[in-house]
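pinging the channel bc i need a second pair of eyes. not urgent but kinda urgent?? the chain im working w is below, pasted from the shared doc
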Amino acid sequence: MNLLDTILVGIKEIWAHKFRSMLTMLGIILGVSSLVAMSALVKGMENGMKEALVAMGGLEKVRVEAQDDLPAYQKHLTDQTPGLLMRDVYALQGGAPLVENITPIVEQHGYRSRINITYQNKRARPWRIYGTWPGILDLEDHRVEHGRMFNEIDNEMARSVCVIGIEIRNDLFGDPEKTGKEIIPVGKVIQINGQPFTIVGMFEHYMTEKERKEKELARLEALKNPQAQVGVVRDKGRSGSGPSGYVFRLKNNSVFIPLQTMMIQFRAAAGVDETADPKLSGIYMKVKDIGVLETALQQIRNVLQVSHNGIEDWTFRTEEDLADGIQLTISNFRMSGVIIAAIALVVGGIGIMNIMLA
């Protein structure tokens, strides 16, 4: 029997068992398509989660945050907790050589703290407003697209300057999607809880890789067909959903001011005898080499133990849990895809065997 005869016999068998053949083909198609779909889904999730990890500062970033809940054996020392102070920052700078860019931060949640930003008759409410040092740019992977970041002199003199995210711009000065033009508000004076602040910089529009590709495609289409373009090619200021979407929305809707300005203008009322509350929300830093992360954390712990007289009213936060979660989620989805594809292919194989033995 030559090849042609074999093909003809196969076609006759398929034609003789139409329904069984259809089910077999359906099983094979479902198996292959599910494998391809799951592979694409897992790859998209992996890219999104990695984008979120990078946008949050990467694995090298370490956060030291204050905690009110002391260990059980230190509960009796609750009234003696100093909190995170600037002396801790200076102690870490001198006693933890494995970390760099040690930056204090005081943050207030826009909705929880009722932070209102106004310009003329328009209002915006940021997700967060940060008082910090210029080093936060590297720690949070921020990039100033227009204007500049405030500097050490701005901080020392407690100048009323700020750097805003693009969504704050959209709320106060108009969304380019509606106005048809890109507005750069550098130099404008806005009111933050009634206090005048000059905008010295605006961050770039943070977006997912998918949004960036869509934007580039729209720009190319506009160049090819100018008549179809309405308005200008522009940033819309909104990030999509997905693992990295939340992180980018948070970054797009934040405001940064100098640390000293935050202490004087927003924390004074919380202090004693009308002095500024000296407590920090956290201290951010980066490990010089991810390979020495454990050793670096031990250095930080030793410094803070001395600085706080042994009271553990602080805690570490790293992105290791996020990275582990990314790997676990990806592994689970891959396994699910393999199982679904295997079941569909086995069903298809059984169908083929039945046709051949019929």
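so The longest strand covers residues 99-109. and Residues 34 and 190 are 53 Å apart (CA to CA). — does that match what u expected or am i reading it wrong
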